[in-house]
Amino acid sequence: MALQVRSWREGFANILGDELISSAQARIELASAGLEARLRDLGARRLVADLEGRPAGFSTYGPSRDEDADEDAGELMALFVDPSAWGRGVASALVDGVLAELCTDGFREATLWSFDANQTANRVYERRGFARDGTEDRREPFGNVLLVRMRRALRGG
């Protein structure tokens, strides 16, 4: 949880602002208690990256939660990297790991949601074959900041 909070503070402050970041931190701390059970209910799993013997980041993935998703769509639901590990390939390794797991699980495409303004993360996703599919959203918990959906085929699907 501390890793996620550090990542939120450093990565999203310029997108969401300090007030929203602080309220998100409180929600993260409250939600952490039942997180594993909620992930299981969604069919989601977590992939953790270690760097020099300590957790450096994690990703959450599973079946797509989007209402318009096909049954063969998987989703990269979350990706957080400790700011001390930024620029060291952790995000790329986590995305690659999730894509491999989604393929193994039989999914034929992968989707994710990202802040439109998060150019650093979006470049990582684009280098891994994701492209915007034209679907956008604004969600109140994120201050109605523009979110974009990205997708890519898996196994040539």
Structural account:
By secondary structure, the chain is α+β, with helices and mostly antiparallel strands. The chain has five helices and six strands. The longest helix has 15 residues, at 2-16. Helix 1 runs antiparallel to helix 2. A hairpin with a 2-residue loop joins strand 1 (45-51) and strand 2 (54-63). It has a six-stranded mixed sheet with strand order 1-2-3-4-6-5. It has helices at 2-16, 18-31, 35-42, 90-104, 119-127, and strands spanning 45-51, 54-63, 73-81, 109-115, 131-138, 146-153. The protein has one domain (2-153): Gcn5-related N-acetyltransferase (GNAT) (Aminopeptidase), CATH 3.40.630.30. The mean pLDDT is 87.
**Approximately how much beta-strand content do the residues carry?**
25-35%
Can you tell me the residue ranges where pLDDT is under 50 for at least 5 consecutive residues?
none
CATH topology: Aminopeptidase
Kindly report the spatial arrangement of strands forming the biggest sheet: 1-2-3-4-6-5
How many strands, what sense, and barrel or not for the largest sheet? Answer: 6 strands, mixed
Number of helices: 5
CATH level-1 class: Alpha Beta
Q: Could you state the CATH homologous superfamily?
A: Gcn5-related N-acetyltransferase (GNAT)
Q: C-alpha Rg, in Å?
A: 15 Å
Question: Distance N terminus to C terminus?
Answer: 35 Å
Helices and strands: which structural class? alpha+beta
